[in-house]
């Protein structure tokens, strides 16, 4: 079996009013494509954001390649360099050109030299067919283009894993396809991915494993077939019968 | 042992040597408010006056380098108290209150507080003051006397401002020191000084309570100056009665001659002479003075016009007669027309003939002209009567025509209240005449006129004549406020000071503002830096909760109270710290307005908090707040106008100085306002362009 990227043990995240993530434990291996689904407010985003410590967990452990990143002695910055994140609202830097958006972090964190970063950015831009937007600013791009740039911005860091939080929810329907097909490509290339999404069909097509969350807990976890089509759990059935 | 002794001796020597050096370079700062002639006033950009002169001499003798600081009068005592200045010399009256705060030297003068009123004022004496609008100069004896004995006065920053308010009908009376009062009134035809002074007082220099040594030194020097008569001489030299000569604006060739005559008389009789261009109105205006002023109107006056003056004295320096041969066909003065007439070169007669008959032939002296007449080369000679009588004693072929051809007469006028000065003056001139001195002066003036005395004659700029028409008076006022004595330079220099303060404070404000904003928002976002955040909050509360003037004064008098620092630096620090508080909140607002996804995106890419702040948040925040920042700088530019409170000569203060010299509010204030306006408009335009350029990226 391949290397373990994340090992999550009894992860708890409490907000003053409620417990958003409630004793979650799971393991994510290199090359796995894990989809996290569940009703709104079930704690999917919070769980995902804990994975790169954008939320400070209340309790539990997150082992990243064997090291507990919830401990203070760990360098969060170098950990995060290995964990890319794609946001629902893209969060591109509006004051920087597309090219600069991509190269800023690799250069500033010394993962790549300026030249390497630039070449890598150009290669990635060519790959997704947006090389002509190299010197444009984010405001000049469509939503789908922006999200694809956000994805290659994360990729430019050469991360071990990519986290996606509802990457297509903010897009007009006609732009969803281009983003999903890029994600699919990445999945097929063996990229480790954790994806929070409401695109159940896409999950069924691409996922190695689907996690269903409700009220902060993992209700079921298994292959798409097991979770989406044949779960015995009434809540799970109920959810999928509504969304499918 | 010997070596040790030697070493010690060397050390001691060195020590003494060092001390000596420090002593010699020591600076003595004198605080004054230079709007108080004759004690202190700005003359050609330099502070002069009785106080300045006395202190200058004492400082020189005590081995100090004197530096004179001009500031508001109510700041001069504070200046010595805080050590900003070592001595305050500003016509300061000795009072019990002030004695609590500072040491006073022995008094060097006894002065009076007088009342200035409009000419037609119903106020006749101190008894009428009750219930009137009384103006005083802030911090003066006049202020405390009126407050303690009459009622609350209206306080003004300086004398000229109070007088301007009076002239504009905003006050009924101004209570102020006697001597500057005369100077103020001399320039304003509608004002007069009441004959009875309100109160008498003593002037002395103020020295800090911690500086008894300096006080003793000052007193010792003052005593010496009193004993030697030097003190009286200095005061007299500044207080000389003024002889104001008013020429018509288009005076002819006789002007230099007349100037020379009067200059000699003034010098001989110890008057201070001033030449003015103007018309009859100026003469009457100049007369509105109670003491120590005589006017010589060189304007031809009709008998009626002479009646306008309360006290007029005429003095004929010389009478000119016509000398002709015994059997001359010239029988009356009108026959001289077209004849060959001779006279002494440069004499009054030459100018007179030129003007009233036709150009005469001139001779180096009277005797030569008489010789030429005897030889038949001339038809007549015009010379003064005494000389003629002398020369004709031995010449039976010539005669003096009956009657006086021309009189060299000077009209002197004095104000209603000082007939004595006029009488004394005329008596003195008569003495000069009978001793023959006056004749010598007339001759010398003629001589001098032959070689133009450009260097001695005061340079008369081309003043537009004061006219009664609207445009004429506007033109005159403009000339008077800006061109005359190059007054515009006050605005130019002030403008550069304002610019300097603004630019430097803006830079300082940005630095402080950025730092504070980053600390504050870091505390907000991450919950760290609590202590620094607390300090920043205190800074913001204090700075935004107090007026900038008060901050400026605190920084100048309290924080830098006993240190000698450049005042521009003080202003930059004060305005920089002040502006920093506003900039901080503006930038913090900008930071908070940036979507928090930007910070998360940066951090999720592995950038540190600082890197994300610098590379991602601040550039966007800055762009967002640019209009607000620009506005803050425009506000700051205008706020620096209070720099005058610490006696910095900025643009506003430059206008004030002009006002204090011309007693005219309109042009200086409008000019100052216009300059600010133009700069602000320019800045707004610049800002608009900058914004547009930044927007292009989006
Ligand atoms: N910063 C926060 N402070 C307090 N409560 C929060 C915070 N973030 C999320 N929550 C709450 O935690 C719960 C889980 O939220 P989360 O965003 O993880 O849900 P989700 O499954 O992603 O829902 P959705 O599908 O709508 O995105 C919700 O009830 C939400 O209101
Ligand atoms: Mg969510």
Alpha-carbon distance between the two ends of chain B:
85 Å
- Biggest sheet descriptor of chain A: 6 strands, mixed
CATH architecture of the largest domain in chain B: Orthogonal Bundle
Number of strands of chain B: 23
Helix content of chain A: 25-40%
The helix/strand class of chain B is alpha/beta
Low-confidence runs of chain A: none
List how many beta strands of chain A DSSP finds: 10
Compute the number of helices of chain B. 26
Query: What portion of the residues of chain B fall into strands of 2 or more residues?
Result: 15-25%
**What portion of residues of chain A belong to β-strands?**
25-35%
Q: What's the overall average pLDDT of chain A, rounded?
A: 92
- Bound compounds, please? adenosine-5'-triphosphate, magnesium ion
Quick description:
The complex is a heterodimer of chains A (244) and B (698). Chain A is 37% helix and 25% strand. By secondary structure, chain A is α/β, with parallel strands linked by helices.
Explain what this protein looks like in three dimensions.
- The complex is a heterodimer of chains A (244) and B (698).
- Helices cover 37% and strands 25% of the residues of chain A.
- The model of chain A has no long low-confidence stretch (mean pLDDT 92).
- Chain A has nine helices and ten strands.
- The two termini of chain A are 33 Å apart.
- Chain A is globular.
- Chain A is of the alpha/beta class and 244 residues long.
- In chain A, a hairpin with a 2-residue loop joins β9 and β10 (217-222).
- Chain B is an alpha/beta fold.
- Chain B has four domains: 23-107 and 205-228, Periplasmic binding protein-like II (D-Maltodextrin-Binding Protein, domain 2, 3-Layer(aba) Sandwich); 109-203, D-Maltodextrin-Binding Protein, domain 2, CATH 3.40.190.10; 238-447, D-Maltodextrin-Binding Protein, domain 2, CATH 3.40.190.10; 486-696, MetI-like fold (Orthogonal Bundle).
- Chain B has 26 helices and 23 strands.
- In chain B, the strands form four sheets. In chain B, strands 15, 16, 17, 18, 19, 20, 21, 22 and 23 form a nine-stranded mixed sheet that branches. In chain B, strands 8, 9, 10, 11, 12 and 13 form a six-stranded mixed sheet that branches.
- In chain B, α19 packs antiparallel against α25 (651-662).
- Chain B starts with a helix and ends with a helix.
- Classes of the chains: A alpha/beta (244), B alpha/beta (698).
- Chain A binds chain B through residues 52, 54, 77-85, 87, 89, 91-95, 104-105, 108-109, 111, 137, 139, 153-154, 157, and chain B through 595, 597-598, 600-608, 611, 615-616, 619-620, 623, 697-698.
- The complex binds adenosine-5'-triphosphate and magnesium ion (MG).
